[in-house]
Specification:
Layout (H helix, E strand, L loop, with lengths): L24 H7 L4 H23 L7 H18 L2 H16 L4 H27 L1
Helix pairs in contact: 2-3, 2-5, 3-4, 4-5
């Protein structure tokens, strides 16, 4: 039986990284009532969902797809905030609002959102790798 990975709540910054962590692990722990197996499961599901969202966001924009993209960003915003990925939630919110307003900056905000998804993915990967050691 595979051992259960536990998320290390001490420090989730990467070596040489002065930026704030992508995940607030204290928030995540509060959301799961400290159940580390649940935290691990949620992070894996969240990471998988983000990979699907990133692929959809990278797809070429089509006329009339702003609403679907805004709805996608809205879903991502909620799930990101639930697990403590607040910067990702903010990027999703900015993109969603720009799309709903018809703001010409939406393409740049989409790139920012995808970059934040990638940063969060790297951090989740590092956390889960460390937890399995």
């Amino acid at each position: 039986m595979p051992k259960s990975a536990a998320v290390n709540h001490v420090d989730n910054r990467q070596e040489g990284d002065d930026a704030a962590p992508a995940l607030d692990l204290v928030h995540l722990s509060r959301q799961t009532l400290g159940d580390q197996a649940l935290e691990t499961e949620l992070l894996k599901l969240f990471d998988s969902q983000n990979a699907q969202f990133a692929a959809r966001l990278r797809a070429p924009r089509q006329p009339g797809d702003a609403r679907a993209r805004a709805d996608l960003a809205h879903t991502l915003k909620g799930s990101a905030r639930a697990v403590g990925a607040f910067a990702l939630g903010e990027a999703a919110e900015a993109y969603e609002e720009a799309l709903r307003r018809g703001d010409v900056r939406s393409a740049a905000l989409c790139e920012r959102l995808v970059a934040e998804i990638e940063r969060t993915h790297r951090e989740i990967g590092a956390l889960l790798d460390n937890a399995e050691r």
